[in-house]
Structures are given as structure tokens and as C-alpha cells.
């Protein structure tokens, strides 16, 4: 039945797969069988997939094929094989290890409890086949844990895929699936996208509701769910299904639905784009600085007006990084205490990294004045971005300021401790991505090219509720400088 050629990794796009399945040129069963075969062949080298449900996936695919054969109208993601992140990503009966915590290795999601990504894509007739790797609590920009090990980068298996959605990005870059679900509290969609040459989209806060939300949701930065894909059109298709309203998320807004695919061809001629090489003072590796500066020239080719923008942040990057770490640590404290009350020690078997304990201890000792100061600083970051966006449609710069790091010993991989001779926090201090987690503005990491043999990502930030502008810019870049040919062929 299948006559459509596959790409170099053995993968079709989600958009093409759904078209073929709906038209009965390809069966959902075939799609799932192919995806499972790719996982069996490539996953041992990657560390990207932590749980596979082949029987459930094949059963769902066969049911979908019968529905199509009977003439039933099916959803926009019909037959697309996909993966969900194992971090606040709930599927009934599936593991819930919260990023590879050994204390939760046997924990399973309660019946009828779904998080947004798996529920939305299943309702759109995609087929869930498994879960992806992430670090404990998602509390760093790389993926490694003592239960599953590191998520390795398909471009260099000795290096990390980034985090905290590293398993999702590695699986997509390696061609296991065309799209995977990701979540983001400080850059966890966009950081691994930058390191794996994939497209990672983080929507405006509230566009995709967080429900059920993590414990301590209101204490930390904005949390997002979004897709990681190999092309922009697939991300637009998935965003059409993810967006919506849920009263359980106080930032969720009714009536926001739009068709993101309508932005793919509109171009960016006449847009004003502000370029920052360092997001107001982050050190940047020279190879990344050069790659980004060259990539930004494409906007002028496309008819946009590009101008340097001086992003004036309210504090040095090191202080902002510490504020983010304290904010996330308050959420982790709540999770640890919530499980302790139920008789579960999340720190068992050294599952929680030492750095996380250090920051939870610091958060537990904060005075009310210090808590209020952090909230004021977060507001100042929001105001700084808002002022910068008053005169430009988009802000662009490096997604992260360092190239992919080498994997460390089991569970202990971190990001760089210094960048271009300047000290940075190894957990998040090399990731300007967290700025939009304080502001709620939409952004995406778009492949900008390779520095040597390693990917570099371009961060594109839009005005709040102007998600379509980000898609328009990313799609325009992709038309001029496609990146799919750069994916490594994995055997």
C-alpha cells in the first residue's frame, strides 16, 4: 500500500503522514510498525525513549484504520506516531517518574488523568507509542538521570541533547517520530531544539493550558506545553490541536483559537526585527555568535527591517539565573513534601541531584522580603521585554549561548560552568530562553545552521498573543534555508 518515499532517517512529516492515512494510501498500522522498528533499531544508542507501549499503539492504530475504512471523518493528526514527555506528562497507566526518579520507577498514572499534550493529540487521532527522557523535575538545561541515563545527541552521541525535553528532541532529530510533546519552564522546549537542529515552539502563556498543573504552579515561572518537530508546518498542525481553554489553568484564555497553518505562507516583508547578539549581557561562544549573525541576514533577504536592539535587563544574567533557580526550587519543595506525606521519599537512591537539594535548601530559607524581591525582579524582566517589543515585531538572538556539552557520569551531566571565559550557572545560566518564562511571550528555536558539526538555534520572540508572527518568521526562514538535509542518518 505504501509507495511514498521516506527521508534519510526513514521518516515522513506528520502533515504528510496524516494526509496519506486519511486518504487510505497508508495505514495507521503501517505507521506504527515503522516507528516501533525505528525505535528498536536506534533507541539503544540514544537514551531518548523511556517507555514503549506497542500493544496499545497497534490497537489504537487498527481501530483508526477501521474507522477510516467505514467512511468516518477522522482528526487532523490521523495516524501520526508520537511520544509524550515523562515529566508531568500523564497518560492513564503509564509511568510517572518525574524525570527518572528511582523512587517513582514503579509509579503509574491514575486512571482518567491525562495531561494536555497526550489528550489533545489522541483526540486528533494521533497514536501515542511511548514516553521520552527528561532530568529530575526538569531542573536543568540538559537531560540525564540515574534511572535512564542521558539523552544523547544524534549529531554526536558523546554529547547531550539538551533539556529538559531532551528525549523528545533527540527522538525527533533521529527520525523515530515526526513530532514529540515537550514542556517548558525555563527553555525546556527550545534548549534541546537548538542542540538537535529541530523546531521547538513555546506558545503565549495560556494558549495551551497546563492541566493538571504541577504542584506549586502559581509560585514559579510560566509553564508551557508545545511541540518539537522537524519542520514548521508540523508544529503549526499540532498547535491547532493543543490550543484551547481549561478552567484549571488561571492563565488559560477562552476564545483564542486560530489556524496556525495560515501563517506559514504570509511572509515577513515589512516586519521590524530587533537583533540582540547576547540578550542584554549573556556571554556567547564565538562559534554561536558567528552562526547567529550570519543567520539573521536572511530576514533582510525576506524584506524585513533588521535593527540592533539593546535589551536592558534589570539585573546581570547571573542574578536572573539564580532567581529562576529559586523559583523552580519552591515548586520542587512542594513536590517533595507532597510525596513525603504519602510515604514516598523522592530522594531515595540518590535520585535527586545534589544541585537540586542545594537550591531547595536555599529556597526553604528565604525570608518573605526575599520572596517579594524575587517577584519584583521577575516583573522587571517582563517590563524590560515589553519595552523592547514596543518598537519591533520580533526579537531574535541565540537560543542558547553554548554548544552541546559532553555527557557526564550517570545522572550528573550539567551545562557549561563558563562561556567564553565568563562564569555561568551550569544548570540554566547559559540559556536566555528563561526570559520568556517570566514574560509569557511566545517564542521558538529555529535551526540556524551548524557550528562545525553541531547545531545552533535562533531564538525568535514575538509579542504576547502574536504567536502567528513567530510561525511566519520561522516558516520564511525554512523556505530560504531548509535544515532537514542536515539530520544525521542513524543506524
UniProtKB/TrEMBL annotation:
GO terms for MF: catalytic activity
Pfam families in the cross-refs: Amidase
Gene3D superfamilies: Amidase signature (AS) domain (3.90.1300.10)
Superkingdom: Bacteria
Keywords: Plasmid
Residue span(s) of domain Amidase: 30-470
Family: Belongs to the amidase family.
Name recorded for this polypeptide: Amidase
Lineage per the UniProt record: Bacteria, Bacillati, Actinomycetota, Actinomycetes, Micrococcales
